[in-house]
Amino acid sequence: MINEIKEDASTRMDKSIESFKLALQKIRTGRAHPSLLDHLTVSYYGVDTPLNQAANVSVQDARTLTVQPFEKSMIQPIEKAIMESDIGITPNTAGNLIRLPLPPLTEERRKDMIKVVGNEAESAKIAIRNIRRDANSTLKELEKDKEISEDDERRAEDEIQKITDSHVKKVDELAAEKEKELMEI
């Protein structure tokens, strides 16, 4: 029973880290990467569709993304979705190809991005700590109901704390890596 609680907590913490990784991918560094557009949806015949299912997104060079719609009629809706998004890029259309030139990040913008990384990291840590709290309260209930001994509860809480510490350390490492990437020119 204690092992199930630990495994559940560890699995949920892993999911928090995966969610954090996805959030980091959306934060733009100086390089063009197709994942910058992963969160965009386009109205495709009245249905909100992920951009990568309505067009081919590729990297032209280090600072330019290209979007090639599968249908010519999708150029306008894709441009509109990119303009309304939070990525801050103005699309350039030439025929049935949309180019997205990524402007170089200013130092001020880089510092803003680092703050965003810090906020995302803190949110991930909070989620991990909440999972620890849930696991510990479950252990306390088991001890209160006399299903496990007080010593077992203490040992399990210590092990859950170790799991929590390792996951928080992973979040810190990922955040530091992203901050280093942002400060590269």
Automatic annotation (TrEMBL):
<keyword id="KW-0648">Protein biosynthesis</keyword>
<comment type="function">
    <text>Responsible for the release of ribosomes from messenger RNA at the termination of protein biosynthesis. May increase the efficiency of translation by recycling ribosomes from one round of translation to another.</text>
</comment>
<feature type="domain" description="Ribosome recycling factor">
    <location>
        <begin position="21"/>
        <end position="183"/>
    </location>
</feature>
<dbReference type="InterPro" id="IPR002661">
    <property type="entry name" value="Ribosome_recyc_fac"/>
</dbReference>
<dbReference type="InterPro" id="IPR036191">
    <property type="entry name" value="RRF_sf"/>
</dbReference>
<comment type="similarity">
    <text>Belongs to the RRF family.</text>
</comment>
<dbReference type="GO" id="GO:0002184">
    <property type="term" value="P:cytoplasmic translational termination"/>
</dbReference>
<feature type="region of interest" description="Disordered">
    <location>
        <begin position="138"/>
        <end position="160"/>
    </location>
</feature>
<dbReference type="InterPro" id="IPR023584">
    <property type="entry name" value="Ribosome_recyc_fac_dom"/>
</dbReference>
<dbReference type="Pfam" id="PF01765">
    <property type="entry name" value="RRF"/>
</dbReference>
<dbReference type="GO" id="GO:0043023">
    <property type="term" value="F:ribosomal large subunit binding"/>
</dbReference>
<protein>
    <recommendedName>
        <fullName>Ribosome-recycling factor</fullName>
    </recommendedName>
</protein>
<dbReference type="GO" id="GO:0005829">
    <property type="term" value="C:cytosol"/>
</dbReference>
<keyword id="KW-0963">Cytoplasm</keyword>
